[in-house]
Amino acid sequence: MCGIAGFLGGGDRGVLEAMTTRLTHRGPDASGFHADTARGLFLGHRRLSILDHVGGSQPMISEDGRLVVVFNGEIYNHAELRAELTAKGHQFLTDHSDTEVLLHGWKEWGEALVHRLNGMWALALWDSTQNRLFLSRDRFGKKPLYYFQRAGTFGFSSELTSLAKHPDAPRNVSELARVKFFAHGLIPAPWTAIEGIWKLPAAHNLIVEANGSGCRLSRYWRYVLEPEETSRPEAELAGELREVVRRATRRRLVADVPLGIFLSGGIDSSFIAALAAEDLGGPALSTFTIGFKEPSFDESAPAKLMAGYLNTSHHEEILSLDAALTCLPEIFDLLDEPQGDGSLLPTWLLCRFARTKVTVALGGDGGDELFAGYDPFRALRLAGLYSRSVPRPIHEGLRVLAGFLPVSHENISLDFKIKRTLRGLSHAPKLWNPVWLGTLEPAELGRLTDSRFTLEDIYSEAIHAWETCRQTDPVDRTLQFYTEIYLQDGILPKADRASMMNSLEVRSPFLDIEVADFARKLPHRYKLRGNTTKFLLKLAAHPLLPSEIIQRKKKGFGSPIGKWLRTGRLAPRPVTELVREKLTRHLAGRTDERLFLWCEYVWQEWLARRKHGEGL
User: Fold this and answer.
1) Tens digits of residue pLDDT in 458-508
2) Which of 62-66, 299-303, 403-407 has the highest mean pLDDT?
3) Domain 234-372+487-557 - what CATH class?
4) How would DSSP label each residue in 1-69?
5) Where do the CATH 3.60.20.10 domains begin and end in the chain?
6) pLDDT band at 53 (very low <50, low <70, confident <90, very high)
7) What does the pLDDT look like over 500-552, one tens digit per residue?
8) Which part of the chain has CATH 3.40.50.620?
9) Number of Cβ atoms within 10 Å of the Cβ of 459
């Protein structure tokens, strides 16, 4: 796990060193540079050593000098690919470096290499014979990659703040990205907070021609739902899923450094922990949990139960408001782009806590998105009927009545779910999901800016995911939204930033390509069965977990931001009338504005730091 940076065109070694130094937290173990001043090519790397400490240094150059690569991530099937390439006559210099597999794989397969990779990656590979730079990002976007092309220079990096060290990098905040952030609580790819800097979207390649003829962006994969009808017994399907996730977990247990498991007490992390314990054995497996003093958010008790069931070496830390306030400045100092997910804070603390014992941790990210684990999936059962049969005046009246429900800041409280559901149903089905999850209603977004953006501009990515899904059922379309928008641009960036700020590598077995292929071919009735979410996944995990874990009501990894904001010690500055209004209502307990106020707080903190130190 590492940080990469580089450019083609204007700049020098000093610029490259400044860019890579900014990524030190992503790779504290070593740094490396490659400079070809004749071509204007500069590649930099910061390393967190996980595999082949001796042979895995980067930038890595092929033996014939033709290729140079910088790479962030892990290729879990590198041993199989190495064996295949060796059989074809390739001679490896390293013992078991996955980076060298990329060099030989490029020679053998060219761009088709990415189709053979099972892992997470953001890479930049220079091919001197083709005089071009090849960039690629993994299928789900677990590893970040930003880029710009301006003034004859192409620059790229793992983080925006690193890219800002290049003198040619754009500086101005994107107004449309800002509105998208408050519409979704995240900034969907390819947008970034900076006008003219782009995220390379998940499952995309980008080829940059050194002769100045431009860039070519292409998509090499998409999570396409292609359900295959089957008459196989459910127990048989569950057994197959269990084996698929077992293999994915086993692939991610390979490391030359200490490894552990994030354990929340939910089914996803518990399933992964149980499978890992089969290989590593109970006490040899370290598990880590963050708890809260606020009971509705605390999952330390079920996590401890699961750890005891597996007899792991369990570690627990309880979070309070005072601890959170102490840590926030450190988080914001390294946060390269605004993240609207309030669980960024406990995720960061969990990663910091785990890093005291291990360098790699496995987590349960992806289980909810692939197998329909969120509450909005339940809402879909009645949403279609409601939207067709309830007249608009009655709907508006119900919203007014719901507004009288007492505000609760408990985790996923009943009033929160009712108000959110009715809010989404005020709009067309293609907007249900982003409005359910977003921080502001569409009608309020216009108060953010003088620029006029249409709903199609603001929600373009969510609309595209809904309308281009090959299946027409709302459950499938919602699955498409969660995998393409919420997972790629919300969950995974949060996990990447929180972990890499602490120099910790996080691996996600549920996002293995074999698991993804199983999930996308599984009819949604095996994911959402009546009111039961993740139906087949729970069936698959049942033989390995205690019934208390299987039957637990989902909480989600949230944090008590609503309560914290009401103390007045954690709040955005009332810089606009909109912020002032919502802050006043929240402090008075009249409405729950936690999502907007947290996003506004994050945006203000991010903007203040960029203006004072990162060159906006």
Assistant:
1) 999 999 999 999 999 999 999 999 999 999 999 999 999 999 999 999 999
2) 62-66
3) alpha beta
4) -EEEEEEESS--HHHHHHHHHTTGGG-BSEEEEEEETTTTEEEEEEE---S-TTT--SSEE-TTS-EEE
5) 2-219
6) low
7) 999 999 999 999 999 999 999 999 999 999 989 999 999 999 999 999 999 88
8) 234-372+487-557
9) 27
**pLDDT tens column, 244-277:** 999 999 999 988 889 999 998 899 999 999 999 9
Q: How far is CA 606 from CA 256, 407, 573, in A?
A: 36, 29, 13
Q: Starting at the edge strand that comes first in sequence, how are the strands of the sheet with 60-61 ordered? A: 60-61, 67-75, 119-127, 132-137, 204-209, 214-219
Q: What per-residue confidence (pLDDT) applies to 321?
A: 66
CATH of domain 2-219: 3.60.20.10
C-alpha–C-alpha distance, residues 42 and 35, integer Å: 5
Q: What is the pLDDT of residue 615?
A: 44
What amino acid occupies position 239? G
Task: Retrieve residue 170's tokens.
Answer: 């754009």
> Cα–Cα distances in Å, from 224 out to 59, 188, 204, 260, 518?
34, 19, 15, 32, 11
| Maximum Cα–Cα distance across the chain | 73
Q: Where are the alpha helices (DSSP H) in 428-473?
A: 429-437, 442-445, 455-458, 460-468
Arithmetic mean of pLDDT over the chain: 91
Query: Can you give 296-321 as a three-state secondary structure string?
Result: HHCCHHHHHHHHHHHCCEEEEEEECH
Tokens of 109: 């397969």
